[in-house]
Amino acid sequence: MQKILIIINDAPYGTEKAYNALRMAMTLQKEHEGETDIRIFLLADSVSCGNSGQKTPSGFYNVERMIKSVLQRGGTVKSCGSCCDARGIKQEDLIEGVQISNMKEFAQWTVDADKVLSF
User: Fold this and answer.
1) Contact (CB, 8 A) for 99 and 77
2) pTM over 0.85, yes/no
3) Best exposed site among 5, 22, 83, 99 by fewest CB in 10 Å?
């Protein structure tokens, strides 16, 4: 199984980097089911991608729904703890399944990954 680490750095809305990263994750899971282990690490302003209760206009993409889809297909999503602290985000603010992590685990994920994509 190929381990793919996707790093997201930008806020969930305002640019389409988070949207495109999550589209890639979802497509990899769909098109290569059983062949990939998708791991997503949220850094900097992207830690807001993990917030629960996101409300977007009808017809507009919703990052929360996209993350839930990745999680439902067996992906793993972690959020940088110091980035969350700096933004006042606590574990209870996050989508169920998104976990607060740290640089040590992020470094290990990077070493373990067969491919690393950064958005």
Assistant:
1) yes
2) yes
3) 99
